Amino acid sequence: MANILKIQQGCIVKNRIEDKSGRILPNELAFDIDGVFADTFRIFVETAREQYGIQVEYEDITEYDFREVIDIDEKISHEIIQRILDNPLAIGIRPVFGSVDVLTRLSHISPLLFVTARPERDSILEWIQQHLRVARMSDIRLEATSVHEKKIPVLLKHGIRYFVEDRLETCYLLEKTPVTPIVFEQPWNRKPHPFQTVKSWHEIEALIQWNGNGENI
């Protein structure tokens, strides 16, 4: 798996997973939340459509800054985003399919690290604790950086080598660091880029080294 060159959407992609087993060690992996673990954009679309009468589909969000591609009043957009930030449980955000099983399994091996650009951690931490079946709350580490650029020093501080992220701009920032970005495919990142992409949590699971012998179990 290491040093394999492959073609993705017209770009040459170098898979930088360097462990001799060709898999990622659990303590070297961290995750973004919105768009990776939390299906946040989907609840935005559902809320806009069902509660505000805005005609929009999930696949219409072809840019991370969705306001560039969908017709939505700025006041309504801000209101929905604030509800998502303030109370993700109340607005009904669901985990991305397969995420809970993989993250729960991973927590049995190593504490989980989530790094989000949300402005505060308490509301999304409550959401995580509600959805993840972990033995101890200390198995969940969460850092809220407020801005995307500040994710980098946090990841470096924790010795992270691989970060699952949906925002391409953050991946390009990480490209200049020892941290290898792994793109979680979403409609807003389906464009040519040089990074490894996963389309599901099943694919993330397949990248992880699950025991000390280098064998996937």
Structure in words:
There is one protein chain. The chain is α/β, with parallel strands linked by helices. It has two domains: 5-38 and 96-207, HAD superfamily/HAD-like (Rossmann fold); 40-91, no CATH class. It contains eight helices and eight strands; from the N terminus they run E-E-E-H-H-H-H-E-H-E-H-E-H-E-E-H. The protein has helices at residues 40-52, 74-86, 88-91, 99-107, 122-131, 151-157, 168-174, 201-207, and strands at residues 5-8, 11-14, 29-31, 112-116, 140-144, 162-165, 180-184, 196-198. The protein has a four-stranded parallel β-sheet with strand order 3-6-7-8. Strand 1 and strand 2 (11-14) form a beta hairpin. Helix 1 crosses helix 2 (74-86). The chain starts with a strand and ends in a 10-residue tail after the last helix.
Strand order of the largest sheet: 3-6-7-8
Oligomer: single chain
What is the overall number of helices? Answer: 8
Q: Give the CA-based shape.
A: globular
How many domains is the backbone divided into? Answer: 2
Q: What is the CA-atom radius of gyration, in angstroms?
A: 17 Å
- Structural class by secondary-structure content: alpha/beta
- Main β-sheet: number of strands, strand sense, barrel status? 4 strands, parallel
The count of β-strands is: 8
Along the chain, the helix and strand elements come as EEEHHHHEHEHEHEEH
Question: What is the third-level CATH name, the topology of the largest domain?
Answer: Rossmann fold
CATH top level label of the largest domain: Alpha Beta
Per CATH, the superfamily of the largest domain is HAD superfamily/HAD-like
Question: Uncertain spans, ≥5 residues at pLDDT below 50?
Answer: 1-15, 213-217
Average pLDDT: 89
% residues in beta strands: 15-25%
Q: Which architecture of the largest domain does the CATH hierarchy give at level 2? A: 3-Layer(aba) Sandwich
